[in-house]
Each structure stands twice: as C-alpha cells, then as structure tokens.
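pinging the channel bc i need a second pair of eyes. not urgent but kinda urgent?? the chain im working w is below, pasted from the shared doc
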Amino acid sequence: MNVEIAVALIAAGGGIIGSFAGVLTSAKLTTYRIQQLEKKVEKHNTVIERTYKLEETQAVIQEQIKVANHRIADLEVGKE
C-alpha cells in the first residue's frame, strides 16, 4: 500500500508541475503578444499624429493660398 501512495503522490506532483509549466509558458506567450501589439499601436498612433499635423499644415497653406489669390485679384482690379 505504501507503493501505491508513493506512485499517487509522484503522479500528482508531476501533474502539478506540468500544469505550472503550462501556465508559465502561456503567460510568457501572452506577455510577448501584448508587447508586440503595443508596438503596433505605438506605430499606428505615430502615423495618426503625423497625419493630423499634415492636415493642419495643409489647412494653413490653403488659407495662405486663398489670401494670396485675393491679393492678386485685388492688384489686377487696381490695374484696370
């Protein structure tokens, strides 16, 4: 009977160790995948910020073009 108890304890210990190793491996994989996703999100956010700045600059340039066109039109009217 002592042998049966020893075998049961060894089997239980092996099961616990195997489960623990599986949980650790899964946690490492999850952490790695989260880090990769964070990198992708950071790249995406950088692109969004740059796009926003470009759109702001474009709006300013378009306004400057409108002002320049009005000035040119005013000068042309003044010549006539």
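so The helical segments are 2-79. and The radius of gyration is 35 Å. — does that match what u expected or am i reading it wrong
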